Amino acid sequence: MSEPTAEGLKRYPATAGYNVDLASSIPCVCTSTCLVRCAGECGCEACSVQFTTFCETSGRLSALVSTSNAEEEALDAYRRVEVAEPPVIIRRGRFDGR
Ligand SMILES: [Zn+2]
Ligand SMILES: [Zn+2]
User: Fold this and answer.
1) Is residue 21, in this structure, part of any structural domain at all?
2) Centroid of ligand 2 to alpha carbon of 48 (angstroms)
3) Is residue 69 assigned to a domain?
4) Which of 17, 36, 59, 78 could anchor a disulfide with 8, C-beta 3.0 to 4.6 Å?
5) How many domains does the chain have?
6) Where are the beta strands (DSSP E) in the chain?
Protein backbone atom coordinates (compact mmCIF):
# COMPACT_ATOMS: atom_id res chain seq x y z
CA MET A 1 0.00 0.00 0.00
CA SER A 2 1.20 3.50 -0.76
CA GLU A 3 1.70 6.46 1.51
CA PRO A 4 -0.68 9.40 1.64
CA THR A 5 0.37 12.27 -0.62
CA ALA A 6 0.85 15.85 0.59
CA GLU A 7 -2.58 16.56 -0.83
CA GLY A 8 -3.93 13.57 1.06
CA LEU A 9 -2.59 15.05 4.29
CA LYS A 10 -4.53 18.22 3.58
CA ARG A 11 -7.71 16.32 2.83
CA TYR A 12 -7.60 14.13 5.90
CA PRO A 13 -5.64 16.24 8.40
CA ALA A 14 -7.14 14.59 11.47
CA THR A 15 -5.99 11.15 10.41
CA ALA A 16 -2.63 12.01 8.81
CA GLY A 17 -3.82 11.48 5.26
CA TYR A 18 -5.84 8.34 5.78
CA ASN A 19 -9.51 7.63 5.36
CA VAL A 20 -10.41 5.60 8.42
CA ASP A 21 -14.05 4.94 7.58
CA LEU A 22 -13.38 1.28 7.00
CA ALA A 23 -11.70 -1.29 9.20
CA SER A 24 -8.38 -0.76 7.44
CA SER A 25 -7.08 2.77 6.92
CA ILE A 26 -6.73 3.82 3.29
CA PRO A 27 -4.10 6.41 2.31
CA CYS A 28 -5.35 9.33 0.23
CA VAL A 29 -3.22 9.57 -2.90
CA CYS A 30 -4.87 12.65 -4.36
CA THR A 31 -2.83 15.29 -6.15
CA SER A 32 -3.29 19.05 -6.39
CA THR A 33 -5.12 18.57 -9.68
CA CYS A 34 -7.95 16.74 -7.93
CA LEU A 35 -11.22 18.47 -7.24
CA VAL A 36 -11.68 19.85 -3.74
CA ARG A 37 -13.89 16.93 -2.95
CA CYS A 38 -12.48 14.16 -5.04
CA ALA A 39 -14.77 11.17 -5.36
CA GLY A 40 -11.99 8.81 -6.33
CA GLU A 41 -11.81 9.66 -10.04
CA CYS A 42 -8.04 9.87 -9.81
CA GLY A 43 -7.89 6.33 -8.51
CA CYS A 44 -7.73 7.40 -4.88
CA GLU A 45 -9.46 4.68 -2.91
CA ALA A 46 -9.72 6.81 0.22
CA CYS A 47 -11.81 9.41 -1.56
CA SER A 48 -13.82 6.79 -3.38
CA VAL A 49 -14.73 5.31 -0.02
CA GLN A 50 -15.50 8.74 1.35
CA PHE A 51 -17.90 9.37 -1.51
CA THR A 52 -19.56 5.99 -0.99
CA THR A 53 -19.95 6.76 2.69
CA PHE A 54 -21.44 10.11 1.81
CA CYS A 55 -24.00 8.43 -0.47
CA GLU A 56 -24.92 5.95 2.22
CA THR A 57 -25.29 8.49 4.99
CA SER A 58 -27.31 10.86 2.84
CA GLY A 59 -29.71 8.24 1.51
CA ARG A 60 -28.31 8.27 -2.01
CA LEU A 61 -27.83 4.57 -2.40
CA SER A 62 -28.99 4.58 -6.01
CA ALA A 63 -26.09 6.93 -6.75
CA LEU A 64 -23.75 4.01 -6.23
CA VAL A 65 -24.96 2.45 -9.46
CA SER A 66 -22.57 4.13 -11.86
CA THR A 67 -25.05 4.26 -14.73
CA SER A 68 -27.60 6.12 -12.65
CA ASN A 69 -28.40 9.80 -12.97
CA ALA A 70 -28.41 9.89 -9.22
CA GLU A 71 -24.64 9.52 -9.28
CA GLU A 72 -24.22 12.94 -10.82
CA GLU A 73 -26.67 14.45 -8.40
CA ALA A 74 -24.79 12.88 -5.52
CA LEU A 75 -21.42 14.03 -6.84
CA ASP A 76 -22.79 17.51 -7.10
CA ALA A 77 -24.10 17.46 -3.57
CA TYR A 78 -20.92 15.83 -2.31
CA ARG A 79 -18.78 18.61 -3.72
CA ARG A 80 -20.91 21.30 -2.23
CA VAL A 81 -20.17 20.13 1.27
CA GLU A 82 -17.32 22.10 2.78
CA VAL A 83 -16.95 20.29 6.06
CA ALA A 84 -15.95 16.72 6.72
CA GLU A 85 -19.25 15.96 8.41
CA PRO A 86 -21.80 14.09 6.35
CA PRO A 87 -24.73 16.32 5.49
CA VAL A 88 -28.05 15.86 7.18
CA ILE A 89 -29.98 16.24 3.97
CA ILE A 90 -31.83 12.99 3.57
CA ARG A 91 -33.95 12.95 0.49
CA ARG A 92 -35.69 9.71 1.15
CA GLY A 93 -38.82 10.23 -0.90
CA ARG A 94 -36.86 10.26 -4.08
CA PHE A 95 -35.32 6.84 -3.71
CA ASP A 96 -38.13 4.91 -2.11
CA GLY A 97 -39.04 3.19 -5.34
CA ARG A 98 -35.84 1.23 -5.75
ZN1 LIG B 1 -8.00 11.20 -2.11
ZN1 LIG C 1 -8.29 12.48 -6.04
Assistant:
1) yes
2) 8
3) yes
4) 17
5) 1
6) 18-19, 26-27
